[in-house]
Amino acid sequence: MKKTVLTLLAISLSAVSAQADDLKAAIEAGKAKYGVCGACHGITGNGQPAPGINMAPSFQESELLKADAEVTALILFKGIKKDDPAAYMGQMMMPLGATMPDKDLADLITYIRAEFGGVEELTTEEQVKEYREKHKETAQPDRAALTALAEELAKAEEG
Ligand code: HEC
Which residues pair with 49 in a beta bridge? Predict the structure, then answer.
């Protein structure tokens, strides 16, 4: 009996450490894919501030990034419909993840949420595949639609 408990404990501890390894590997891989994003969002995720205006939102202040990973995935599949053409020096968030392989996108999402959003949570290739299928027909969201999705997913999580 005691032995069974110890064995179970050993198995669950090794599962936990395997998960931590997966998270670390995904963060490393995602970082390597971040360069293109850094052009607008800044290598430190600060949104590349110029006097009085940012080129893109700061990730540190982003509520959307801290929300369920599905929200970030949708942003990358579809981009963001611009409310104000002059905002962010006229830059726009394009659907850069639309043609990215699921695994690369999963790593990139894991990286930016962990590094800039403080959410250390692995997003898997399977999740991205599922989100892509779910949002196949979703129209390009504006910020209000993204905030609504974030709230809906948070509510679903609470049960
Ligand atoms: C050409 C500049 C540009 C590039 C390159 C770019 N973005 Fe963006 N991104 C923006 C702008 C501008 C917004 C804000 C859009 C809006 O609100 O209209 C944005 C918004 C976002 C948001 C939502 C953040 C928030 O709180 O508003 C996320 C997440 C994001 N981008 C991720 C990425 C990732 C990941 C990449 C790299 C694959 C990337 N972006 C590349 C310009 C860019």
Answer: 54
